[in-house]
Amino acid sequence: MTASTIHYMYGVYPPKDMICVYSTLRTTRGGNLSAVAAAAWHLQDGARVGQGAGERSREYDARGRGALPSASKQMRRCQTGLRTRPALGASTQDSSKMMISIKQRLPTPILILLICCYSIVTAANNDTTVPCLPDQASSLLQLKASFIGINLPSWRSGSDCCHWEGVTCGMASGRVISLDLSELYLISNRLDPALFNLTSLRNLNLASSYFWRPELPVSGFEKLTDMIHLNLSDSSLTGQIPIGVARLKKLVTLDFSLNYGLYFDEPRFQIIMANLRNLRGLYLDGVQIFGSTWSVVLADNIPQLEILSLSMCGISAGSIHPSFSQLRSLKKFNLRHNWGLGAKVPEFFAELSSLRILYISGNYFEGQFPTKIFQLKSLRTLDLSYNPNLSVSLPEFPNGNNLEKLNLEVTNLSYHIPSSFANLKSLKSLSISTTGTSKELPSLISKLPSLTELELQGSESGLEKAVLSWVGNLKQLTSLAVVSYDLSESAPSWIGNLTNLKFLKIWDCNFSGSIIPYQIGNLANLVGLYIGDCEFYRFQIPPWIGNLTKLTYLEISDCGCSGSIPSTIGNLTLLERLQITSNPQLNGKIPQSLFALPRLEKVYLYENHLSGSLEDIPYPLTSPLSFIQLNDNQLSGLIPKSFFQITNLKCLSLESNKFTGTVELNYVWQQKNLFFLSLSNNLISLIDDEGERVPPSLPNIRYLYLSSCNLTKIPGTLKYLDAVFNLDLSSNQISGAIPCWIWENWKDHLLRLNLSHNMFSILEKTPSLVNMTFLNYLDLSFNRLQGSIPIPVTTSSEVALDYSNNHFSSIVPNFGIYLENASYINFSNNKLSGRVPSSICKASKVIVMDLSGNNYSGSVPACLTESVNLSVLKLRDNQFNGVLPENSREGCNLQSLDVNGNQIEGKLPRSLSYCQHLELLDAGNNQIVDSFPFWLGTLPNLRVLVLRSNKLNGTIWGLKDGHQNSNFTRLQIIDLASNHFSGNIYSEWFEHLQSMMNSVSDDEQILQFRTNVSILGSYQDITSITYKGNTLMFTKILTTFKAIDLSDNSFGGPIPKSLGKLVSLRGLNLSHNAFTGHITSQLSSLTQLESLDLSWNKLSGEIPPELASLTSLAWLNLSYNNLTGRIPQGNQFGSFSNSSFEGNVNLCGRPLSKQCDTPGSTSPSASAPSYTNSFWQDRLGMILLFIFSGLGFTVGFILAVWFQSFCHIERWIHKHR
Fold it and tell me: Which residues form a coiled coil (predicted)?
């Protein structure tokens, strides 16, 4: 039966896609009419066969964030859940539901005709059904073997593959014509070539799979010439779309969406689209489309296109050609989040006469929005949101306008709202920004009779104060969102009037009180309640939350909640998902009744301050709980065994709490559905009783985090798990060998491995090159490993490797060949020696390179300083010699260069001036002979400059020295100590250090370098300076730390008064110079100063009494000058010892024994110079100081002084003279 036959019998043409359904009915075995017919109306309505996560993920939230690529797919899965889908036609009940939907969608005559035709065809072919052909079953089994840990029980050798889950065969051919494994979350390292042996495929749906970012096969697709529906969305695929897709000329729908590594170049897009003339639905969201001809190509080749989804495709401005208006069949057009679209919205969009849905949100459209688009009779949904430069003037709306959904949030909406806005009688959903709109808007909205969903957006630049009481009159509303408002002056009690509300969202708002309006507790029909990112004053979750007994979803996040979770939450017997997160003041126990809720599946209570112990979960074998995230709290006590007996549990995250006791791993291994487990950073001990024997059942764990769990060995059962993707056993007490089975058993699966901070000493039977196909992160740091560094041979596009702080002594010379995609390499603090292998230059994509703390010699490899990708280069504490290469070039991205502690000679290379992002330069402790490098002042971001202990000479009398824009305005640490500088320092030298002049300190942040190493995040650097008499190693440099060290030079003249302007200075060391004159009283302006060392100069006069006002001063050394008079008393001066003032024969008063009223009485110990004593006190000890973890500078360095006093340094020195 053809379309023309149906037209002849009924006077209408069937939907185009119903012809596809009929042809499928003729060849489909198994009687699954509902599934096939459902596919037709799904397609007819704008969806596609077997739609997976792709379409749903494209339902962006009103904030415009959308379905962005996640940095860690396992976390997304842990939060969204693994949904399983029954086999096609597996349930009569499901079939019935689908039939009901079909009846609602199709004309009754056509439906009856199709059923009759199907019945006749089925009856005629009952006796001629061909079983699955052997080659088809073989290909499917090969395909199954490529999936990791997937449970397809019906896929068994020897059985008819036509009855396997997700498989449909042609009755007369025995060949597979449909394969739908969507949302089974298939995991594989490749799209197996066996798939392309199924050459009769018409429908292929592998949506929401995880293919570990392999490139799409270059060949294979050209074999599937019968394909009608192809869906590979959300599958982590990368690379160019294969040209073989052009051979699929029967394609009706093509979906590559949400594969953010895929791309079309301009010629290939043109070739493929020119051959897909039957295409009706094209979904390329997240696929990069290069060039500007895409709109012309589509208009010329696929004029019958009905659905086009191109969000996040990198489409540029001016690329929408007027010929695009030829797509008169286009019903849905999604152009969201193409940030390069900065032009005007094309007027010819109004010519798309079939257009029902238009999404252009999240772009940078500008100019006036064409009002004619509003008047498209076919238009039902229009989303213009998050185009802040787009001017929108609403036109006059005539009666009969069919618009149902309208989103105008964060646009430049005209103040005038026409009264005809009330004519939008069909409008069901409205999202609008109220900033700057007419006062008539509330009354106009109240006249919209069909309105059931309303989102009101306040100001993006700051919370908007607005009176929203009028919303309380919209009693027909079923969904309300209130975003970015200041509600501190008028609590929204009017919400209580909206008794029909099912969904309520309050986001980014400010409340004056400590509770949300109690009237919400009267909304008995609420199904979903979302409160997030709001500001309350000591907000407590109210007990009346238990009155909302119809709630299935409750979220209260980042609201500054205090108090505890009320026990009345146990009344929410329909609750399926609970999320109360990121409330650091929320404390108390988790109510016992919570885990007993009969429908609760997902519990997210992470990043709070919850305490107490966990109660046993009642009836864990039948509990619906599947996701439990309680990490980052203060929970204590034992972890109940019942948590490891929940049959449906898929994700359990208990990390970063204070749990104690033991956990028997054999309970964990019994959890067949568990794929994510984190017990890290608690006080528990794990017991592994299984040893080396294979347990009776194995879990499907893919992500296992057991850091800081007091493990003394690697659990034996891990050896038998078929595929662990992420394994973290760091910070335990595991000793001995790293077993070879880690590399052998998981070579095709392992993505991340962290064994750092243990006591491993050897690598068992591990070669220098280890085949790890997809490894992207390996951390073996802080162990006792010896021998050769194992280099992974991996295909991953980004690799981070950390072997630091071990005893490795060698590395395969050609290692760089295998690290071409490495972005982070850390070999520091090992025993590597000789010249750096030249193959290191092959690692051309490296962003962070750390070779420090080895015995490397020879010259610095020129390729390292020439690289434009390198952001951090650390070569400190080696034996490098020669001069630094003079080859940095334009485009240099260096942020940190550290060559401290080598034997570098010559001058600093002036080519570093190309490195405009440089923040830290440490060339201290070398043999550099040069004058002061004034040209470094042209680096606008330079914060740390360490040139100590070199042979630098000359004066530094003027910072600018004729160099334009040479000012060092952001410099926060400058260390020129132990050089040969001389001459006076003039006031203007310090007057350019603006970063040190800010009286209001920067936010206390760690100086870190934002690299593009996504698997690592920011990189924190290290440097060392002399501070408070000690050489301190700063492993985390705070941006608030400001210090100057000019000690051990030959500077002379007076101390510049301009030093007093550096009010945020924390440390100042001018010791061992030849400064003369008085100590300037302007130093008393340095209110944050913690360390001041002016010793061993020629200073005279009295100590300014104003210095006693420096209450932050924890270290003072004025010894060995010519100071006179009384030592100031009070505040910090009362805490300093004799050593701070000795060597000044004319000083008197405490703490010296010489009293001011008896000038002649001096103590030999106080007056006799002792260079040795002071020298050792200034230089003794390398104190590693981690400046973070809640310790401020003053506390941290007082601990350093405390350490010195308790070590009895002076007594030790006296004993060893």
Answer: none
Residue 918's nearest CA partner among 992, 968, 875, 849 is 968
Question: What is the full DSSP assignment across 748-771?
Answer: TT--EEE--SSEEEEETT--SEEE
Q: Widest CA span of the chain, in angstroms?
A: 129
The tokens of 1002 are what? 């920067």
Q: Which amino acid is at 491?
A: A
pLDDT category of residue 22 using cuts at 50, 70 and 90: very low
CA dist., res. 614 & res. 991, Å (int): 60
Q: Is the pLDDT of residue 1126 over 90?
A: yes
Alpha-carbon span 949 to 739, nearest angstrom? 46
For residues 561 and 488, what is the distance between their CA atoms, to the nearest angstrom?
16
Q: Give dist(CA 1195, CA 784) in Å, integer.
A: 33
Residue 1209 in contact with residue 1177, Cβ under 8 Å? yes
Separation CA 867–CA 858 (nearest Å): 19
DSSP 100: H
The Cβ of residue 806 has, within 10 Å, a number of other Cβ atoms equal to: 24
Q: To which residue do tokens 């309300």 refer?
A: 480
Secondary structure tally for the chain: helices H, strands E:
19, 76
Q: What are phi and psi of 104, to 5 degrees?
A: -75, -20
Distance between CA 1217 and CA 1205 in Å, rounded? 19
392 forms beta bridges with: 413
pTM here is 0.80
Considering just the CA atoms, what is the radius of gyration of the chain in Å? Answer: 36
In the numeric block, the tokens 């969406």 are attached to 257
Residue corresponding to tokens 């009037």: 497
Angstrom distance (rounded) from CA 619 to CA 642: 8
Q: What is the pLDDT of residues 149-191, one digit of tens each?
A: 777 889 999 999 999 999 999 989 999 999 999 978 888 878 8
Please return the burial class of 1042, using the count of CB atoms within 10 Å of its CB with bins 0-12, 13-18 and 19+.
buried
Cα 132 → chain centroid? 46
Q: List pLDDT tens digits, range 594-650.
A: 999 999 999 999 999 999 999 999 889 999 999 999 999 999 999 999 999 999 999
User: What is the rounded distance in angstroms from the CA atom of residue 778 to the CA atom of residue 792?
Assistant: 9
CB-count exposure of residue 1017 (10 Å: 0-12, 13-18, 19+): exposed
What is the C-alpha to C-alpha distance for residues 328 and 431, in angstroms, rounded to an integer? 28
Whether 630 and 657 have beta carbons less than 8 Å apart is answered as yes
For 94-156, list the strands marked E by DSSP: none
Q: Are strands 167-169 and 176-180 parallel, antiparallel or unpaired?
A: antiparallel
Residue 120 CB burial class (10 angstroms; 0-12, 13-18, ≥19): exposed
CA dist 479 and 527 (Å) reads 10
Phi first, then psi, for residue 691 (nearest 5°) are 65, -135
